[in-house]
Amino acid sequence: MPSTSQPSHPSAPGLPAGLLESQPGPWELHGSGLLRWSLLRIYEARLYLNVRTRQTALDDMGAFAAASPFVLDITYLRNLSARDIILATHQEIVRLRPAIDLVKVDEWCVELEAILPDVLRQDRLSGHFVPNESVTFYWNGELVGRIANGPFCEAFAAIWLDPATRQPALRAALLGQS
Predict the structure, then answer these.
(1) Which long-range contacts (CB under 8 A, 24 or more apart) does 110-115 make?
(2) What is the CATH number of domain 25-174?
(3) Percent of the chain scored above 90 by pLDDT?
(4) pLDDT tens digits for 92-133?
(5) Tens digits of per-residue pLDDT, 128-139?
(6) Is the separation of the CB atoms in 135 and 128 below 8 Å?
(7) CB 12 within 8 Å of CB 28
(8) Residues 157, 159, 160, 161, CA torsion sign
(9) Within 13 Å, how many C-alpha atoms sit on residue 133's CB side?
(10) Are 151 and 43 in contact (CB under 8 A)?
(11) Where are the domains of the chain?
């Protein structure tokens, strides 16, 4: 099982060691928030930006428009199956990006099945996003996979950062607007 120890790192003390080793920063916490469903606390999410290359803004429509890499880091507060996470991912991508062919979304979810584990309470899943290029996934600090596909990268990030997200309060918190 991957290590859950946290390194001491001046720019991003909360990021997992494996991510910091492969994706050097300095990283800066931009915003954080809690996802709740009814009365249940599902996970805590944090958005980190690379201090040296950060070029992040909201576009004219209010959408997150990252031109440089960022990290979305999630600590789960409940046990969830990979199947449930992937099903929710599929539903949200289809809802948020209806112009994307369903066959393509299905293919992305097959790729996710090979990467994402079932998560237990306090597990961390981190995604290092390179806009228009890829998402690299870390589970409890260990590299578990990468999807090198620009449209997937954008559609996956939209789940949290699009103005039409199902969780606008979490989005606002991640973007430092709350």
Answers:
(1) 111/145, 111/147, 111/152, 112/82, 112/86, 112/147, 113/82, 113/86, 114/145, 115/144, 115/145, 115/146, 115/147
(2) 3.50.70.10
(3) 65
(4) 999 999 999 999 999 999 999 999 999 999 999 999 999 899
(5) 999 899 999 999
(6) yes
(7) yes
(8) positive
(9) 11
(10) no
(11) 25-174
**Residue 8 confidence (pLDDT) above 60:** no
Percentage of the chain surpassing pLDDT 70? 87
Q: Which tens digits make up the pLDDT trace of 22-48?
A: 887 788 888 999 999 888 999 999 999
Task: Give the tokens for residue 90.
Answer: 């599929």
Q: Positive or negative, the Cα torsion across 53, 28, 161, 103?
A: positive
Q: What is the three-class DSSP state of 142?
A: strand
Give pLDDT, residue 3. 37
122: closest CA among 85, 77, 72?
77
CA separation for the pair 110, 43 (Å, rounded)? 23
Whether the Cβ atoms of residue 2 and residue 141 lie closer than 8 Å to each other: yes
